[in-house]
Design goal:
alpha/beta, Rossmann fold, 5-stranded parallel β-sheet, 5 strands, globular, binds 1,3,4-trihydroxy-5-OXO-cyclohexanecarboxylic acid
């Protein structure tokens, strides 16, 4: 069964009561449950990591080669700062989709730039939990497309 790694970056463990005007009221556990439910429907397996530490995220991406077929990542604040996560994504060449709960383009100016997006296949931003669910669907489609190429 195809495996997709879902990475949640810093402070996403606080979802539920963290700036709910931007991020909604679902907890991370509730978001993960919705992702798991869709994964069952799409017949794929999901693995989760939430970390507030850039190095942990870099290590996890770096050791994922050959272990997962696609990555869905919400790099959270690291979106705007992390050359290391961008390089990890480029390094492993695993198809990666960047997601954001909020629309990073209609908030503070510093959020409108992603260092990770150029290394990803694409980005989904602004649809709350649906950003993750759309990304999972895209990931499954990408995996199938890549299989047909080989
Ligand atoms: C976020 C947007 C980032 O700018 C912010 O730092 C986050 C969450 C989002 O999902 O909308 O922590 O990635």
């Amino acid at each position: 069964m195809k495996k997709i790694l879902v990475i949640h970056g810093p402070n996403l463990n606080l979802l539920g009561d963290r700036e709910s005007n931007f991020y909604g009221t679902n907890t991370l556990e509730e978001i993960n449950q919705q992702i798991k439910k869709l994964a069952r429907e799409l017949n794929c397996q999901v693995e989760f990591l939430q970390s507030n530490h850039e190095g942990v995220i870099v290590d996890t991406i770096g050791s994922s080669k050959g272990k997962v077929d696609a990555i869905v990542i919400n790099p959270a604040a690291f979106t705007h700062t992390s050359v290391a996560i961008r390089d990890a994504v480029l390094g492993v060449k695993i198809p990666t989709i960047e997601v954001h709960l909020s629309n990073i383009y209609n908030r503070e100016e510093f959020r409108a730039k992603s260092l990770i997006a150029p290394a990803a296949v694409g980005q989904i931003s602004g649809f709350g939990v649906n950003s993750y669910l759309l990304a999972l669907r895209v990931a499954v489609t990408l995996i199938k497309k890549n299989e047909n190429k080989n």
